[in-house]
Amino acid sequence: MDLIDLRSDTVTRPTPAMRAAMLDAAVGDDVYGEDPTVNALQQRLAADLGFEAGLFVPTGTQSNLVALMSHCERGDEYLVGADAHTYKFEGGGAAVLGSIQPQPIPQDTDGSLPLDKVAAAIKPVDPHFARTRLLALENTWHGRVLPLDYLKAAHDFACERSLAIHLDGARLFNAAVACGVPAREIAKHFDSVSVCLSKGLGAPVGSVLVGSAALIEKARRWKKVAGGGWRQAGMLAAAAQYALDHHVDRLADDHARAAALAAGLGDIPGVKLLGQHTNMVFIDVPADRLRELDVHLREAGIRISIGYLPTLRLVTHLDVDDEGVARTVVAFRTFFAG
Ligand SMILES: *Cc1c(COP(=O)(O)O)cnc(C)c1O
């Protein structure tokens, strides 16, 4: 029985065709800037998203970290969603390693940071305060797509207030596919964008940070300092290239399957459907039945993550097909019928 793993879109395994592309990759020492496949990936994503330069790094966490450290100096501050990944799920790296103070802003339910709240959090120029330098947004956020007109407003606001603006676009392409626009239409509102290749796009490892040549030069230095100076990374870049060639448009399938999963689960007494956004479905089940549900699903060959968020999050991806969705709905139905 195939395992259906709905814990995250990070669990995908490289397809046979992706593995073949990895085996064939030309490689060199990336610390010397000599890996042709890494260089091609960086140039390609920068060009596609409308930026001068790109930097291929091991993780989204390192990508956001080096972005923040390139925008901000010691004693600077960045404004960030109180439930944003960068603030909440990256070990406080910007503060720990970059001496950058986060100023969390409570988010609206769609993930946006209300700009009046952002404005109120900007510190006066005065030695009492950290220097507010950067606004960081996330799209998608818990699967939710930030509206394009909000991105434009946030961009204009940042310009007016002389703030730089960074996007944690771990799932940028999910947002673009959901909006039906090229990813650059989202990216154009930012000074830097971090994109994960290892989520819905299905590559085994890697993120790319894009920005101006000057910003990426700084980020390259911080990447090395953070221990991210990898060598013949071209095999990983080849997987990323393959993902960009073959796995972007199909994100629509993940979104459709998440919608089907939501529809199926929403019909089951005992399951409270909280929402479905892009490739994520959020549900509540009675807390006293959680453990039992987990055991039941494992026996049916289904994994979900329990305890990571207050609600249950089910995520569709490359390795979940229509049959996987149907089997999941049946497993939930059997459990709540019993
Ligand atoms: C996964 C994720 C990251 C971090 O990526 P890692 O590769 O796991 O370090 C950053 N931001 C968001 C929104 C993510 O979902």
How would you sum up this structure, described in words?
Keywords: Lyase, Pyridoxal phosphate. Residues 5-285 form the Aromatic amino acid beta-eliminating lyase/threonine aldolase domain. It is an enzyme of class 4 (lyase). This protein is of the alpha/beta class. It has two domains: 16-247, Type I PLP-dependent aspartate aminotransferase-like (Major domain) (Aspartate Aminotransferase, domain 2, 3-Layer(aba) Sandwich); 250-337, Aspartate Aminotransferase, domain 1. It has 14 helices and twelve strands. It has helices at residues 16-23, 36-49, 60-71, 85-88, 93-98, 115-121, 148-160, 172-179, 184-187, 213-225, 234-246, 251-266, 290-299, 322-337, and strands at 4-5, 53-57, 76-81, 101-105, 131-138, 164-169, 192-196, 207-211, 272-277, 280-284, 302-303, 312-315. Strand 9 and strand 10 form a beta hairpin. Helix 1 (16-23) packs across helix 11 and helix 2 (36-49) runs parallel beside helix 11. The longest helix is centred in the C-terminal third of the chain and has 16 residues, at 251-266. The protein starts with a strand and ends with a helix. The structure holds pyridoxal-5'-phosphate. Pyridoxal-5'-phosphate is lined by residues 59-61, 64, 85, 138, 168, 170, 196, 198, 207.
